[in-house]
Every structure is written in C-alpha cells, then in structure tokens.
C-alpha cells in the first residue's frame, strides 16, 4: 500500500499530470469566463483552440516551444478555414482532404516537435467537420476565436513555466535516472544468467533508445538555457546531475562484456560473479530512489549499503585468486579487477549526484565552454530541401503521408455514402492511431479499442446511476485531464478516459447518452480497422526494407568513434572533446538502430525478412560500440603507455573493414583494403605483449615477490584490455562486413 501511495504521489507531482492540469484549465476557463460575460456560445471555439495547440507544448528550449505553438496556431486556423469553406462542395472537399492530409503529415520529417505540430493540424482538419458554420462571417469568427484559444493556452503554459521554472528539467532528470537504474539492474542479470540473454539483450536495446532520447531532450533544455549572466546555482545542480547521468550511461555501455568469454573463464566459479551482480542491483535501486527524490521531498537514502556491496566485490577478487591460484587465476582476476574498477567509477558518479542533491557546497562546478557545449546539441535541419528529399516512395514518411491521406478520404466517403452520424469520429480514430510503422499502428489500434470499450462500460455504469448534468461536466473535465496526463505513459488508459470525456461532453448536448456511447464504440472499431488495413495494404513500409540508411549511419559513426579513440590514446588531454563528440554521435546512431529493430519486431512475421541476420547486425554494432567505449574509458581513467605501432595498425585494419561494410550498403564510396596478414601480425604482437608481462609476473612470484605494485597491475590491465578488445573488435568488424554483404544480397539487391 505504501508503494502504491508513493507512485500516486510521483504521478500527481509529475510534469505529465502538470500538462493535464494545464490543458484542463485551458479548456475550462473559457467556458467559465464566457458564461459569466454572457457569451457562452463563443466558449467552444476558444476551448477547441486551446485543446488543438496543446500537443506542441513539450519540454525543450523556450524559443522552440513558443515557435512550435505559434506555428501550430497559424496552421490550425488555416486548415479549419479551408475545410469550412470547402464543406458545401464535395469534389473540392475531397481534394482538400487529400492535400491537407498529405502535406501536413509530411511535416513530421522535421522531427518529433514538428510531428506534434503536424498532429495538431490533422486534428484541426477532423474537428472542422464537427463545426456547423454556414456564412463567411461565422467561419471567420470561429477561426479567430480558435486563435484566441491557442494564444490563451500559450500564455497559460508560459505562466505555469514561470511558476514552476525547473519542473520539466527535474522530471526529465528523474526519468533518466530511473531508466539508467533499470538498465543497471538488467545488466546485472546478463552477467550470470545465460539462458535468457537474447531476450534481455532485446530489452537493453529499448532502454538504450529511451535513455538516449531523454539525454537529447536534456541537452536541448539545459545547454540552451544559459543566460548571459551565467547559470544559477539550481541550473548548475541540474547540469551536474545530467553530466553524471551521461557518464554513468556511457560507463555501462563501455562495459558490454564478452559474455561467452566470461562463461568460459568462470564456468565452474560463477559464485565469484555474484558480488558484482549484487553491486549492480544495489546501484540500480539507489539511482531509482534518487530519481524519485528529484520529484518528492524526502530524506536521502543511506549510502552504507552501496559501500558494503563495493567492498564485497573487492573481496571477491581475492577470494577468486585464493580459490583458483595464480597463474591460472590471472585472466579471471584481471576480468574481475576491470569490472571492479568500472563499478567503482559508477559508484563515484552516483556519489557525485548524491552530493549535488544534498546541496553540498563543495560539489564540483561545471566548466563547459559555450562553444564546446553547443557542439553537443543535435540541431534539427528545417530547410526546404529536407522536405524535397522525402518526396519519394523510398521515404517512409512519404509513404505514410500517402497512406494516411488515402485512408482518411476513403473513411470520409464511407461515412458520406452510409450516412454515418459522426463520420469525423472515424477520421479522428485514424489520425490518432495511424503511424508510419504497421506494428505501432496495430498496437495502438488494440489499445484504442480496449480503452474505448472500457471507457464506454464505465460511462454506461455512471449513466445508469445518475443523469446529473453537473456530474457529467465534472467527469468530462477530470477524465480529460487524466487522459492527457497518461497519454504518453499508458495509451490504453488514456483512450478509456478520452472516451469517458467525449461521452459526457456529448451527453450535455444529446440527452440520449446511450446513443452517444453506441456510436462512439462503433466508429472507433471502424476507424481502427481502416487504419490497420491501410497500413498493411497501401504502400506498406516494412522495417526490414528500410534499415539501409540507419545501418550505414551506425557503421560510419562506429568507425569515427574508433578513430577518435585512437587519437585519444595518442594525446588524451588534447583530443578528449573530439572523442566525446564522436562518442555522443555513435551512441545516437546505435540508439536509432535499436529503435528500428524494435519496430521490425512489431511487423508481421511474414514481413520480417532476414530477421536473424538483422538481429546479428544490430548486436554486432552494439557490441562494437561498447568495446570501443571500454578502451576509451580505460584511457581516460588510467595512466597508459604510449600507443604501440601494432595498436595503430590494428585500428586501421578495423576501420578499413568497417569501411568495406559501409561499401556493401553504399557502393558509391571508394573501397579501401589492407592485407589480412598485417592485421593478424599486429594482433599477435599485442597478445604477445600481455603474455610477456604475465610471464614476467609469474617469474616474480616464483622468486617470492608476491606483492603486486600499482604500476605492474595497471600495465597488466592495459595489456590485457587492449590485446583482448582489439582482437574482439577485429573479429566483430569482420563479422559485420560479412553480415552486411548478406543483407545487401538478400534484401537491397532484390529491391533494386
């Protein structure tokens, strides 16, 4: 019960609920004000204007948010005017529907914020069918009042932001820390349980994409919020937590272990891994608790259990050496030592977050230069050529726009020919449900239908209990607030609440509430069916055929990241910024690849061409970026010897192999080759360096020098990590080249 109350408190204090309240106030106030002034007939278009322009109000920089809402206001007013003037002329209306549906949905090529503006435009088109305006004067008044409603909502949003200036950032930071905590716990399970690894690796793909999305939004909100006078203490705190969250995430990524090797080394000694697994779980749970404290006002959790778990992991290394004995235990001990060092770094970042949240004055300051920080922002390209480049059937968004416009026209004609009472409800269902991918459309259709049926059932129960107009009004408003608050978290629940809200709004107009419920359910079923069938049959876009560019980008970013790591090894102090930028780009590229793979898993089984091959390529890319990150992380956090000639040769060999993998997907590029012998020789020499140090250490032990000094330990760690990971990277790059060749033969060549 206590846990449920805590979750309820977190929800009521969340920005999702805050936006629900914002929309509720935005819709309710016009009715109250207009009723008081005696102009109640003008309240509805003002409320509709506020409702239509709420989607663009998402976290981000103030400038982008205001611009998005203003564009949305202009677009919704224009579209409403065009539809209302075209309604008396069916041929013209059909043409207008096609053009508006296609052009407005294509705006989504400009990114997520643009897709929400596009959604507002499509909603405006649908809701215009519900407005009964006969004369030009009535139309202009209606549209003008919608504009007033949009400006009223924008003003309200800015007021809320002024009152709670840092709420969005705190919520984003909380969500990010919670996701990272879940990710750490998931990685703990991967360490010892190999029977469910494939399924859990798929879960890591989802979490990686979600964390990267949060980090991108935080970059926009925190790095663009700098004022000329500098940051406030509170902004400094938020930025410190954000930077620590990035370091933690990248440390986790850097420790993507070669689980097959670990299974081989610790096959009969898995008990020595349990302390490390426990430490991951403890740190994950601690991050989740810290994430809750960013929203709640509560005491900081005790850190003693963190320190105890770290100490147990350290003891486990000694226990392993005592049990297995040197030199047989050396490889396993080095694996455990590297794992311990990584987890100790994670704990340092968690402690840094604790210090910031506890307002410790000695917490470190942020020293990002403006020109440096701006390089970490991913700027959306808004030029016309982006739209022009997508005017092709090869573009997923172009196909979606065509599909959506055809589905909407067919649905409208169906409603017109069958004289369906509220055809726009069918259109509304299509607009809300239909997405570029079949899998997401199908999932939303199912959630929409189930939610509508649940909402209808609840509405029937309430109607049977009471026919009170006041009760209907309150329930309509409250359900709308909660629906908007839940729409991103739980679409099924949001659909149920939206149904309740719509039923009671219409019940205020039409006394026969059961008729409203009946038509609402029927129209939802029709709209959902049209959306799913259209996605499957009209210019279908199957993810297996759309992966080429995403794969190519992931390979190119991995190659750049690899070369940036080579430069970091040469001179860590000079090349750290370029390394960090390459790392960020590589993480975003792999995040996009993971998201594409998740969409593939939602396609029908018959359309998942070469599923195992694509899964292999995604996993290989993911493993490669982690192996590169592991080397980079070691270089940053340890004093290393100068990069050897063999290391540089092997880096070039791997980079060239990745280039050949890119060439398989994009044959326009020039191919570069390096002899296999050179790569093999370099790999052997790197391994020989580690073996030489190991033999030297064995000789010292035989002579009685059992104490291991820090310099020798670091030299052994470096030699083992570099030789092991470079061989691993070489193998991964060769496997990627072969896999991309197979992908080209089996999918790309068949398309051309």
From TrEMBL:
GO cellular component, one term: plasma membrane
Segments forming domain Integral membrane protein YccS N-terminal: 76-342
Keywords attached to this entry: Cell membrane, Membrane, Transmembrane, Transmembrane helix
Bilayer-spanning residue ranges: 21-40, 66-85, 92-112, 139-160, 401-418, 453-485, 491-509
Domain of life: Bacteria
Membrane topology: Multi-pass membrane protein
Ranges where the Integral membrane bound transporter domain occurs: 410-533
Main location group: membrane
Keyword Transmembrane helix: yes
Leader peptide range in chain numbering: none
PANTHER family associated with the record: MULTIDRUG RESISTANCE PROTEIN MDTO (PTHR30509:SF9), P-HYDROXYBENZOIC ACID EFFLUX PUMP SUBUNIT-RELATED (PTHR30509)
Name recorded for this polypeptide: FusC-like integral membrane protein, YccS/YhfK family
Organism listed in the record: Psychroflexus torquis (strain ATCC 700755 / CIP 106069 / ACAM 623)
